[in-house]
């Protein structure tokens, strides 16, 4: 069976929570490189993090579930700047066209393409790199 990477994590708790959510919805999936990153977190950049792998057949449904869960969670998180609950996800993927660009990413980050994810407040326009705590 063919598996595709749907997400990457540097935190094994979040990776396992997402894995459990998908498995509860009968999505065929598993974690790759979980033990390497958990035993030695310094190897995280070298292996490219904990990868959530989903069967090619279930890939579209898994993407919808992950997006819905994240959007529901964001509705409860206040912006650290203006305190409104209006954070949205913004993503950027860097896919170098040149051989040397891909090689640089492989050597420096352990993967050919770089994926950045951050959050922007629709109320004040503030940018947050990580989801702030709701507490």
Main attributes?
135 residues; alpha+beta; Alpha-Beta Plaits
Structural description of this entry:
The chain is of the alpha+beta class and 135 residues long. The protein has two domains: 1-74, 2-Layer Sandwich (Alpha-Beta Plaits), CATH 3.30.70; 77-135, no CATH class. It is 37% helix and 26% strand. It is built from five helices and six strands; from the N terminus they run βαβααβαβαββ. The protein has a three-stranded antiparallel β-sheet with strand order 1-3-2. The chain has a three-stranded antiparallel β-sheet with strand order 4-5-6, with no helix packed on it. A hairpin with a 5-residue loop joins strand 5 (114-121) and strand 6. The radius of gyration is 16 Å and the shape is globular. The termini are far apart. The mean pLDDT is 90.
Question: Could you tell me the radius of gyration in angstroms?
Answer: 16 Å
Order of strands in the sheet with most strands: 1-3-2
- The number of E-state strands comes to 6
Average pLDDT across residues? 90
- Biggest sheet overview: 3 strands, antiparallel
Give the SSE string: EHEHHEHEHEE
How many helix segments? 5
- Uncertain runs: none
- Class by alpha and beta content: alpha+beta
Strand percent estimate? 25-35%
The CATH class of the largest domain turns out to be: Alpha Beta
**Helix proportion range:** 25-40%
Architecture of the largest domain in CATH? 2-Layer Sandwich
- CATH third-level topology of the largest domain: Alpha-Beta Plaits
Q: Which descriptor suits the 3D outline?
A: globular
Work out the count of structural domains.
2
Distance between the ends: 42 Å
């Amino acid at each position: 069976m063919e598996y595709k990477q749907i997400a990457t994590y540097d935190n094994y708790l979040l990776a396992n929570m997402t894995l459990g959510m998908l498995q509860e919805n009968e999505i065929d999936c598993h974690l790759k490189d979980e033990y390497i990153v958990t035993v030695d977190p310094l190897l995280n950049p070298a292996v490219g993090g904990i990868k959530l792998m989903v069967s090619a057949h279930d890939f579209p449904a898994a993407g919808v579930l992950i997006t819905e869960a994240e959007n529901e969670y964001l509705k409860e998180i206040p912006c650290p700047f203006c305190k409104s609950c209006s954070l949205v996800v913004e993503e950027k993927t860097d896919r170098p066209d040149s051989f040397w660009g891909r090689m640089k990413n492989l050597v420096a980050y352990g993967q050919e393409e770089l994926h950045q994810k951050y959050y922007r407040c629709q109320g004040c326009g503030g940018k947050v790199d990580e989801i702030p705590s709701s507490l």
